[in-house]
C-alpha cells in the first residue's frame, strides 16, 4: 500500500522536526515518488509526484521583470527573472540557481525566497531559469548559469546593479552549480570577485549513488564515505533512489558514461584540482538529508584550502526544508533559514562580512 511506502521509519522519529512530521503525516501519504515513473509520466501530472503543500509565491516586491538571455552549446535562450527592491540603486545583486536535480524546477521553485531576500536585504535577486535534462544534459545547466552571471555583470547599467557587489547561490543541484561557478569566477579574465557563494544543501560528490533507481541499493561504509547517505537512504520524501533518477537523466545511466562524468570536477566538486582563493562560502545543510555529509565535507575542504567558510546545519528537517516557507503553514526552520540568509547577504554586500557561526 502507498501509505506504508510513505510512512516514516522509526529510526528518524526521535529527532525529527515535529512540524515536518505533522506536515508529512497529514499531507505526504498520497505522494508517488517521481523516481518510480519516467520523466514523461512526471510531466503529464507533476502534482501527483510532488509534495508542494506548504509553499507560497512570496511577498510582493517593488519590481519584477523577465529578460531573455541568449546561451550557447547548444544555442538557445534562457529567462532571467529580476527582482528589484525599492530605492534608487545601483543595488548589489545575487543570482539564484534553483534546485530540482537538473531535471525539475523553474522560476516558481524558489520565488518566495527570492522575493523575501530582495525585500529584506535590499538587493536585486536574479532567478535563473537554466535549461533542464534530459533534453539538455550535463554540463548545459552549468554554462547557462555562467552565461547568466556574465550577462548580469555586463548589463549592470540596464539592471541598475553594482557589478562589483555580486554573489551567487543555489539549492541542491543549484548548490553544485554555485560551487562550480565560484571556480569559473576566480579563473575568469577579468576575474569576477564574488561576495559570497551560498550553497544550500548542495550536492558535491554523488559517486556513491547507485545507477539503478528501480530497486533499493544498500550502501555500506565500503561503498560510501558519507554516513548521512547510508543512514538516510530510505527516507520516504527523498530516498537514495530519487538521486539515481535525477542522475539518469542528467548524466546518463550508461555505466561508462556515468563513471566518466562523475570523475569530472564540474560534476563532483570535491575533485576540484584547486580550491584556493575562492569566494567566501556559506553552506547550509539539513539533518535528514542524504547529501548532508558530502556538503559539509566540501566545506571543510574549502576551509583547509584557506577560504573563508561558514556552515550551518538545520536540525530535524529534510533536504528541501527551505521550500516549505509558507508564512502560516510552513516550517519554522524554513523561516529561520530565510532570516539567516537575508541577514548574511546584507552583511556581505555591505562589505561587513559576518558569516554565521557553524552549528555543526
UniProtKB/TrEMBL annotation:
It comes from the Eukaryota. Keywords: Hydrolase. Pfam families: Abhydrolase_3. SUPFAM superfamilies: alpha/beta-Hydrolases. Residues 95-322 form the Alpha/beta hydrolase fold-3 domain. GO terms for molecular function: hydrolase activity. This is Esterase, putative.
